[in-house]
Amino acid sequence: MIEIRNISKSFGDRLVVNDVSFTFEQGKTNLIIGESGSGKTTILKLMVGLHSIDSGEVLYDGKNFPKLPEKEKQEVRQDIGMLFQGGALFDSLTVEENVRFPLDMFTAMSREEKNERVNFCLSRVQLEGRNNLYPGELSGGMKKRAALARAIANNPKYLFCDEPNSGLDPKTSIVIDQLIKQITEELNMTTIVITHDMNSVIEIGQKIMYIYKGKNWWAGNSKGILKTDNKELIDFVFASGFMKEIYDAVKNKD
Amino acid sequence: MTLFFHFGRYFLLIKRTFSKPEKLSVYWRQIVHEINNIGITSLPIIAIISFFMGGVITIQAAFGFTSPIVPLYAVGFTTRESMLLEFCPTIMSLILAGKIGSNIASEIGAMRITEQIDALEIMGINSAGYLILPKVAGGILILPFLIAISMFLGIYGGYVMGIATHACTSYEYIFGIQAFFEPWKLWYSFTKVIVFAFIITSVASYFGYFTQGGALEVGRSSTNAVVYSSILILIFNFLLTQLFLT
Ligand SMILES: Nc1ncnc2c1ncn2[C@@H]1O[C@H](COP(=O)(O)OP(=O)(O)O)[C@@H](O)[C@H]1O
Ligand SMILES: [Mg+2]
After folding, report:
1. What tens digit of pLDDT does each residue of A133-183 get?
2. Where does residue B7 rank: exposed (0-12), middle (13-18), buried (19+ CB within 10 A)?
3. Beta A158-162 vs A80-83: how paired, if at all?
4. Is the distance from the beta carbon of residue A40 to the nearest atom of ligand 1 less than 6 Å?
5. Between the N and C ends of chain A, which has fewer C-beta atoms within 10 Å?
6. Chain A: nearest CA to B25, how far in angstroms?
7. Last residue of some domain: A155, A176, A194?
8. Contact indicator for A192, A218 with CB cutoff of 8 Å
């Protein structure tokens, strides 16, 4: 479980994250949704320490991460897996080396154990046999999957995914979403997914925070979204005419 | 103002680069990789340039020394002195600043804009140390060898071209390159090389590491790396020369 309490962040004199609080639950896929530029990535980067926090707390199972001494921070970091928007695979390493990278850096596993773990992770994201390809040789969806394999290689307790299905076709998106959801349940991780894909919201949104202009504007789950009265959220989620029809249909059923 | 900003940020980065490596074995592998990447791939260009510049300096020296008071071995002597003291350590470093500097800056810059550096940081790896230390160490280890090869080939190029164009004879040239040799001057040359190696690799890493934006900015970092490391090489060349030779 990760709890954020009243976190804020400004870049220069622009307040980008404004007093946001939320609890991300273990074993669930927690979503952060919102328009682009609303501050979602910044919240994620504040949580993992890639940006320094102006005020507020980020509690990883009770430990306030920004205030931990460097050594303990390091320990928490090794429990974090992150899937970046573009994958962020290391270009100079093969798929297999990418996935093995955290194992090489942080574990005392033997070569066989590492190979076994790498192959398990790759098969888990349906990339078995692609061990020796370089990131440059992968399609967008394969890159995301390889990056997901790397993110889960070291058995993280916390998984962060920044727009895992941006730039993917709808079918591949669903595959990635389902993978994230299944892996989260399997490994009982605390998973946080940033998305503005409405399919994902409805499919995997067990707990949702809607960010509007840097603020926690609405919180709930996918069922709640369909019934919300929050104007900004309705405008965001049901931006297209088609989605609006679905919204009206659901509303009228009650 | 911005100059102070860059200096401050540069020194902080260097400090982080040289603090606590996570796993030494991994670093060692990276250093070997960088020695190959920086060193071996630069050999052909170094070899070609040194050979021809040595040749040209010899021909020019022979052309200039027509006065009967100048001894015939002065041609070999001049080639050796200019190669050892200035051409190989300084001009070669400037050329390498172009080749290695742009390579390092664009590699690290691309890693920055595609969030690979963030990925390292998240894993709890000191990205500055992991990425920059092997490049600086690799550069400092391999550049002296490259320059030594450059010195040898430059003097050899002078010999080959000098004989081929009848600018001098074999005996005079070989006598000339041995005349009045002062070994301490090699200290001067190789100190310069090591300082320049540090400048090239660290300045290029700095510009790459703090790239912000997209592909265009990676190109800009790469240009900045070459421009600023070249300027710094010239400044330090002047300072070290003052220090050693006066
Ligand atoms: N490092 C930074 N420096 C300055 N401004 C930033 C930085 N990162 C993000 N921003 C600004 O903060 C705002 C929120 O960005 P971001 O969190 O990336 O939005 P989202 O992920 O929701 O699309 C944007 O307006 C962006 O320009
Ligand atoms: Mg974003």
Report:
1. 999 999 988 999 999 999 999 999 999 999 998 878 888 888 889 989 999
2. exposed
3. parallel
4. yes
5. C
6. 10
7. A155
8. no
Q: How many domains does chain B have?
A: 1
**Interface predicted TM-score (ipTM) of this complex, two decimals:** 0.87
The reply to whether A138 and A72 lie within a common domain is no
Range of the domain at B129: 23-245
Q: Which helix (H) or strand (E) holds A6?
A: strand A2-11
In a domain, B62, yes or no: yes
**Does residue B1 have a pLDDT over 90?**
no
**Token pair 């550049």: residue:** B143
Tell me the residues of chain B between 30 and 59 that have a Cβ less than 8 Å away from chain A. none
Decide: helix, strand or coil at residue B118.
Answer: helix
Q: What is this structure's pTM?
A: 0.89
Distance CA(B173)–CA(B162), nearest Å, equals 8
- Owner of token pair 């002062």: B182
Mean of the per-residue pLDDT values for chain B?
A: 92
- Residue that finishes a domain, picked among A110, A134, A155: A155
Element (H, E) at A195: strand A190-195
Structural domain total, chain A: 2
* Element housing B81 (H / E): helix B74-82
Cite the beta strand spans of A61-184 per DSSP E.
63-64, 80-83, 158-162
**Cβ of A214 less than 6 Å from ligand 1:** no
A29: domain CATH number? 3.40.50.300
CA-based nearest residue to A150, from A104, A89, A224: A89
Q: What are residue B198's phi and psi, to 5 degrees?
A: -65, -45
